[in-house]
Design goal:
The chain is α/β, with parallel strands linked by helices. Helix content is 60%, strand content 11%. Helix 7 packs across helix 9.
């Protein structure tokens, strides 16, 4: 189940939107300001954020700037849902990296379509990266040496891209606990102590094969 965070100081809107999104099988939490949103994300990273722009203290533009400064959260899609409907406002939002910009009042069906499209695009990107990393892994003999299973190879390809366990679990459609188990198996089989050593091992092997060619 995808987790969505709502960031808006209009509690009535948050309640209505939460109920609507839950009907489409999304898990939804809400906060009323940017500082609380950042604290929430550090504790439990959501799959997508829907944020107002006009709020007290920090605004939506500040929020997306702060997210994009941190590599741990730069991947989180942000949808602006706001009363600021001028063309210049939308351009500013897109230039900062928002994935979509909806002006209040809005059709909730359009919001659902946007959310589903974003998740579909992310899934397609993951599949594309998975294929590219299979090609990368085929260049090294380490796979045969370590006798990795198909699932371990799938997990390894995403580890090499820098994805965390939760993101890998979502991408492969399994529980985070299972991913933790597979990562531990990878570390044991490759005699590496952590993810960094694991990645370096395969990068060195790939660089060596390219050099010999």
């Amino acid at each position: 189940m995808k987790k969505i965070l709502l960031v808006d100081d209009d509690q009535n809107l948050c309640n209505l939107l939460s109920s609507y999104l839950v009907d489409f099988n999304f898990s939804v939490d809400s906060v009323n300001n940017i500082r609380n949103a950042l604290a929430y994300i550090r504790k439990d990273c959501p799959d997508l954020v829907i944020s107002d722009i006009m709020m007290q203290d920090l605004n939506g533009y500040d929020f997306i700037k702060l997210l994009k400064l941190d590599n741990l959260y730069i991947h989180i899609p942000v949808i602006f849902l706001t009363a600021k409907g001028m063309t210049a406002d939308r351009i500013k939002g897109y230039n900062l990296g928002c994935h979509a910009y909806l002006t209040k009042p809005f059709d909730p069906k359009e919001l659902i379509a946007i959310i589903c499209n974003i998740f579909n695009q992310i899934n397609l990107l993951h599949k594309s990266n998975l294929v590219n990393n299979y090609k990368f892994l085929s260049n090294t003999k380490l796979l045969n040496i370590f006798n990795l299973t198909r699932r371990e190879k799938n997990v390894l390809t995403l580890v090499l891209q820098g994805y965390m366990n939760k993101e890998i679990a979502i991408s492969l459609g399994v529980s985070q606990r299972n991913i933790e188990k597979y990562v531990s198996q990878l570390l044991n089989k490759t005699n590496t102590r952590n993810r960094i050593e694991l990645i370096r091992l395969f990068l060195r092997a790939n660089d060596g094969s390219r050099t010999r060619v």
